[in-house]
Design goal:
Layout lengths: L2 E9 L10 E9 L6 E2 L16 E6 L5 H17 L2 E6 L4 H14 L3 E5 L7 H9 L4 E4 L10 E5 L1 H15 L3 E7 L5 H19 L3 E8 L5 H15 L5 E4 L2 H13 L7 E2 L6 H9 L4 E4 L3 H15 L8 E4 L4 E7 L2 E4 L4 H5 L6 H5 L2
Parallel strand pairs: 1-3, 4-5, 4-6, 6-7, 7-8, 8-15, 9-10, 9-11, 11-12
Antiparallel strand pairs: 1-2, 13-16, 14-15
Helix pairs in contact: 1-9, 2-3, 4-5, 6-7
The structure holds beta-D-glucopyranose.
Amino acid sequence: MTATLIRFMRLGNDTKSGMKRLYVVALLALSCVKAPEQTSTAGGTTAAPHGGPVRIGFSMDTLKEERWQRDKRLVEQRAKEVGAALDVQVANGDDAVQTKQADNMLTKGVDVLIVAPHNGEIAASIVEAAHRKGVPVIAYDRLIRDSDVDLYLSHQVEKIGEMQADYAQKHVPKGNYVLIGGSPTDYNALLLRKGQMNVLKPAIDRHDIKVISEQFAREWKAEEALRITEDALTKTGNKIQAIVASNDGTAGGAISALEAAGLAGKVLVTGQDAQKDAVQRIVKGTQTMTIYKPIQPLAFGAVDAAIKLAKKQPVETKDKINNGKKDVPAILIEAIAVDKSNVDSTVIKDGYFTHAEIYGQ
Ligand code: BGC
């Protein structure tokens, strides 16, 4: 992507101190997030324009899935390493709470917000409120729709959907499929389904693959996935060959339904997140694959980008994604498909889990 960056460089002191301001507007053709740049009087890598450490607000939807606990831990670790002040708030799946928590952080005074939205549309109001105070916003993992959000940091979500479907199709080229999406209020769930369909559509059109059910599990709930799977088993008289579950939580729900029907291990099941119970199921044989998304580059990347945005410095980006209002500059990290054959050379080698955690002693 080549975005045009308008850089405002402030030279000299501001009017409050009675001095003249001089703005130089430079047009740069760079792949960067648009950011007004100011010179800071304070030294140190994390000093904000106000002179103190950069204050980052991290608004999280949930800690329900194991990965989000990892995200929180790593964001905290990175903020500490670089000397930024961090406030983390978790909304537990409640949009009103998330909006309020973000408002509170803005009132207390943050220089930048990182938001993992519960609802990608409702969170647009958080961006508006932040921008009214001149605070930039990073959409973390999940896109914030129809807003002027400054940056999007995530994995390659649509590609992950393609990887899940590709794996399923390679191993089960013909048969009855169940597609279990995530929460419809999470744009990731829609991107994943888009990716899955990119791959499956030709096989569906050829009638090699028959989609028995293509629903979305509210709130990414395992119970919803269980119900969807039970219904599909009933509808087909237990004749399901593959379940494309969009994450490990929903895969777990689907596998519970398969277990009750005596079919666990006989039906291909995909997932995402490489969470511990899922990787254990993979080596046991009841879940077929997952998608490993390294969280450290995401968490560290978000803190580092937040500091740059707070200091009104440009952030280099290679990607972009349209959120309904604009092309949002994006940093999209690669993910890795994991099955029995490469558990050791991926999640265990990386130290995501120990050998004992996955295989037992
Ligand atoms: C994330 C997944 C996660 C899901 C449920 C998605 O937006 O990308 O990693 O499993 O939300 O929390």
